[in-house]
Automatic annotation (TrEMBL):
Molecular function (Gene Ontology), one example: hydrolase activity
SUPFAM superfamilies per UniProt: FAH, RraA-like
Superkingdom field: Bacteria
Record-given protein name: Fumarylacetoacetate hydrolase family protein
Organism annotation: Microbacterium jejuense
Fumarylacetoacetase-like C-terminal domain mapped to chain residues: 23-224
Bias-annotated ranges (Polar residues): 284-294
InterPro entries, per database record: Fumarylacetoacetase-like_C (IPR011234), Fumarylacetoacetase_C_sf (IPR036663), RraA/RraA-like (IPR005493), RraA/RraA-like_sf (IPR036704)
Basic and acidic residues composition bias: residue spans: 268-283
Pfam families associated with the record: FAA_hydrolase, RraA-like
Residue ranges crossing the lipid bilayer per the database entry: none
Keywords: Hydrolase, Metal-binding
Chain positions covered by the region annotation Disordered: 252-294
Amino acid sequence: MTVDIAVDAADPRFAALPGRPGKIIAIHLSYASRADQRGRRPAAPSYFFKPSSSVAASGSTIERPAGTELLAFEGEIALVIGTPARRVALADAWSHVAAVTAANDFGLYDLRANDKGSNVRSKGGDGYTPIGPGLIDARHVDPDSLRVRTWLNGRLVQDDSAAGMIFPLAQLVADLSQHFTLESGDVILTGTPAGSSVAVPGDVVEVEVSVDGGPSSGRLLTTVVQGEAGFDEALGSLPAVDDLQRAEAWGSREAAGLPADGDAARSLSERGTSETKRPDHTNDVSSRFARSTTGDISPELRAKLEAAPTAGLSAQLRKLGHHSCFIDGVSANLEGAKIVGTAKTLRFVPFREDLFATHGGGYNAQKRAFDAVAEGEVIVIEARGDDSTGTLGDILALRARTRGAAGVVTDGGVRDFDAVAEIGLPVFSKGAHPSVLGRRHVPWEHDVTIACGGATVQPGDIIVGDSDGVIVIPPSLAEEVADAALAQEAEDAWIAERVAEGHPVDGLFPMNAEWRARYEAALRQAQGPGAR
């Protein structure tokens, strides 16, 4: 049986290209301006694929799917491969590029978390890769002289040159050729500079690539329209956004209409509303896009957790099959301290001179975490159990205290130990150490899954600590665990009274059937008439 597959060589989507590309390879992060905006700089390029079905021509429209809000544009320089490249040297890599043009690497941030970096759904949609309209001959182009500019509704929002890239254009070609053959017609999307943001229905986005004082690709024009089709929950994961995705999609918390310190957003989330201010041109977003409040603790649950000892809570977790809830090796700086809060995580990596030079100074991840901690949150720090240096000191402790943090848990050391204690911020650590951060650690990232004292901690997990230690409670289990722990505490208190009266513990602790019946009778009597 013969099957004919028709491919229209004159498909208007590929009008700016030699034909339908076999591969479209895109880089995650490549411009210094974008890396500085994101607060992280990669040590090496990383990539993802986009399907050729996502290509669109200049003048096309792109749909924002129903039920989504964060369709972001990214103006980019696109490289079109001429002669195949396989394991080419850096010095020869540019000779394999036939042409350069403009591209717009659209992405739907509502689906980004579900894709975990692959970007299959978040960046693979139909029309999500406009390319064109014209090609620039790469043979006579100095790669560093290339410039990309993007306009949103006629306003210039992105303007950077390839000279501002962390990884030179030729390096991307050489690097990719180490892993697979770059074939004629393949396209490499080389990343976007700072200024990428969200586009909403009615917006017009234009991208142009040019050579300083030389040829231009012309303006690549795309109009955003509102789609009517959404996503079927029976088939796969649904769109979901939080304020981190909003801030990254818009480019900053300010651009997303979020308070710099998160106070207003937190207040709204506690009321269960979606009144968080958005920029004027996004007021068509439905109220069901309220910020995620996963991990928030209600006043009622917080009161229960504060009343329940960690020993009792951990016992109930073990009954539910959770045996890895302990943050081991830490103790409180304040006698009798009790902390209850949701985790805000911070991760340090082992010290390395070049990494500390790029990530240790300035407004690093450590400072950003302490500046952004919300009232009632616990900053949980991964220091790999290394207590031979401080992971915070008095200034950061004061900042956290001023912000209303519930406390700090670190499996490393604390600098200015006595001063931190005087501030009154509960800190659970491995102890005091006088040295500064740069001796052992590089502040790397925050609000990610970490390991602290042998326990996995995710942002939003519930942290409870007292003189017995610190435990991690999955938010979905917190109510059940707290209720069971308090019930057990009441039972233990009754048993303690019987022991004080002179009863032996045999049969009483734990209670046999006879003692259980007596206890339940005492409960009914205490509850009054009608209790069953």
